[in-house]
Each structure stands twice: as C-alpha cells, then as structure tokens.
Amino acid sequence: MNNDIKLHTTNELKALKKLVSEEFVLRADKYDETYTFPKENFLSLFHAGLNAPTISKEFGGMGLGNNKGNIRKLWEMTTEIAKVDMSTARCWEGHNNALMLLDNLGTYIQKERWFSGVINQGDIWTVWSGEPLLKTPSQKQSIGTIVSRIDGGYILNGSKVFCSSAPGATWANLLVNIDGPGGARHAEGSPESVIMLACDLSNPSVSFDDSWWKPMGMRGSVSYKVHFDNTFIPYENQIGKPGQFLLEDWQTRWIPQYAATFLGGAEAAYEYTLNHIQNQHRQSDPFIQHRIGKMAINIQSARMWLDHAAKLWDDNQISSAQSMGNMVRYQVEQLATETVDYAIHSCGARSLIKPSPLERIVRDLTLYTRHDNDDQLLATIGKSQLGELHDQSFFKTK
What is the CATH T-level fold of the domain 3-123, as seen in this structure? Predict the structure, then answer.
C-alpha cells in the first residue's frame, strides 16, 4: 500500500503483521470452507503474547482501551487481522470487548481469576446478547432466555443466537434480562433488568447448534445458536452492577471496531486490485486510474474517520466520541463497500472465482455490514443532530 496510507507501526503491530502475513493468511480459506473457529490463530496470538490487548498492564495485558489514550492501536490491530480474515477479526473483537468489560467493571478478585486464564492458558472470551424476539418465516420456536434467582446464583434456560466464537471460546459474558427474554438489544424492560453473567462454556448444560449457522460469508466466526438447560451461574460470576452495560453505553465503545474490520476488507481488496492491474499491465487505462484513485481516497478517508474518533476518546470527550463512533461505523461501511465494488469492476468476473481472495472478501463484507441496518444507523445519526430521542447503542426506534 502507498506509504501515505500507513500508520506508525509499534512493536506489537509488527509482531501481529508477521503472524497475519505468515500464518493467518494460510488458514483463512480452511476456516471459511469448513465453517470452523480459528483456533490456531488464537493459539498463535497467545504464544506471541498478543491475546490480551484490553487487559490492564497490571494483570499482564497490553492495557489498550477507550479510556487509556490508546484505543486507535487496538483498532489498527483489528484492521490488520481483517485484511486476511474478517471472521477471525470478528472473534477477536468479541474477545477484546469481553476483556474490556472485565477490566473496567469486574472486581479485583474477578480480574485476578479470569485474566490469569487468558495470560497463562490462552483462554478465549466472548460477549453474547442476541435474542431476537421476532420470528423468521420458517422459525417454529421463539429465541430467548429466562433467568431465575436461586440460593447462590442464577439458573439460565433458553437460547441465544449470533453467538460468535461459540465452539472455540472458553468463557462467555452473557447479557441477559431478568424481566424476560430479550438480552440487551431487544430488551423492553428497564436498563437495570439487564445483567452480565460470566458463563463457563465447558458446563455440560450448555450446548451448541451448528445447523443454525450456514451463512454465505463470515463463516469462521461460527456464530451458532447456543442453548442453556438449567445452567447454574453463581453470584460471584456477575460482572458489574445491574443495568451498567446500558446505562454507561458500553456498546458505543465497540462500534468503531466494526469499521476497523470493514477497513481491513477494503485494504485487502485494494492491494489485490493493485497487484492484478500491474500483472495485467493495465496501469495506463484511464478508467482503472480513476478507480484506483478513488479506492486510495476511500481508504485514507476511512483511516481519518477512525483517527478522529480515537482522538475524541483520547481527549476524554466521551459524548462526542460516542456520537462520532456511529458516524464512523456508517461512513466506513459506505467507503469499504464502494472500494470493494471498484475492485470487482477493475478485476472482472474472474476475481469472484476461487481461489481469488476477493471472492471471500465480497461474501464476508456483504454479511458483516448487515450486522446492523445502516438505514437505522443513519436515522439514529440524524435524530442526534435534530435533538430527537434516540438509542445511540442499538439504533432502536423510540
């Protein structure tokens, strides 16, 4: 890539780029074709000491976070991973988000207990909320969880979907609603009804349904349906206070990471296109020149959006950073999608046939950008500018 589009590289980023270019790229097709969790990638991150970026240095991590003046570094790492495998980047996002919650909201005892597992054993974490209450046409049964209090803890029954990293994670931070099914995203109760519970996924009462996950792209994120059958979770596994996740808008700290992953896909498409054009000796084609120019501008623009959002967090302008995160998420999706479209037009139909990496990039980006509806996201941004009531975390109609 042109030097004008690169960021300064730290030692950790250099080590990550080495892993990505020498190992992750060789495994990406296998994970995609077999719908399997990128276990070897996480083992490589663990052995390289790169698997705990959002754990405080006090506990052996890299100490990255929105409130630590260095969140851009985390997003850059996400982009590097996404350049070769957006599915691994999605699992990486969930792992780091879970650790960020523990680092900021967990007790000291919880941190000592769980962070040692990450640092010393390579434990993998994730965050699950998904409990969509609307049925699809072929869906026979509602999805959701019921939480009951008993002596010493909670009993969890029911199911969640879009559970990324399901067969590979060691622990899951479950966002559940004590007022009934809904998780966090679709909850209708008060914010205080949403609690966070750390669930040991080796518990035999937890089972995975892989038949639910047969998507066109993002296959290696293995976002299965997960069922809980009288799963006991002790009180000491509750993270933070009831409602803290929603009341403190923790979701807004993660939204730019989606954009960082989209950018990775766009950068990979751009690099593939440059190589293809040079191999075909088509550099003098004015239409190619236009497309390459626009792709370079798009990538630089996306990086500038992420830079700006990170600076707002670094400057502790929390409200502005939260609003900017939604703008970044929306705008980088548009820039990345347009960049990939230019790549297809420049490289032709053969670029959409395996073993071309662009074929998987198109499928992955198409699915992942639908993680949230960009129409709802744009409406949320508009509401914020007009002073209308809005949900800046989940873009629900209010």
Answer: Butyryl-Coa Dehydrogenase, subunit A; domain 1 (1.10.540)
What's the CA gap between 164 and 226, in Å, rounded? 10
Q: Distances in Å between the alpha carbon of 194 and those of 236, 254, 255?
A: 16, 18, 20
User: Measured on CA atoms in the order 179, 161, 38, 270, is the torsion positive or negative?
Assistant: negative
Please name which of 214, 197, 215, 219 lies closest in space to residue 206, comparing C-alpha atoms. Answer: 197
Residue 116 CB: number of other CB atoms within 10 A? 13
3-class DSSP assignment, residue 111:
helix
Q: Specify which residues 207 forms β-bridges with.
A: 227
At the fourth CATH level, which superfamily is domain 145-244? Butyryl-CoA Dehydrogenase, subunit A, domain 2 (2.40.110.10)
Judged on CB neighbours under 10 Å (0-12, 13-18, 19+), 211 is exposed
Domain ranges for the chain: 3-123, 145-244, 247-386
Rounded Cα distance, 41 and 36, in Å: 12
Q: Which CATH class is domain 247-386?
A: mainly alpha
Residue 334 near residue 258, CB atoms below 8 Å: no
HSE-CB for 170 with a 13 A CA cutoff = 15
Q: Higher confidence at residue 189 or residue 260?
A: 260
SS3 105: helix
9: helix, strand or coil: coil
pLDDT band at residue 136 under the 50/70/90 scheme: low
Pick left, alpha or beta for residue 254 (phi over 0 → left; psi -120 to 50 → alpha; otherwise beta): alpha
Residue 56, C-beta contacts closer than 8 angstroms, at least 6 positions apart: 63, 103, 111
Indicate whether this model's pTM tops 0.85. yes
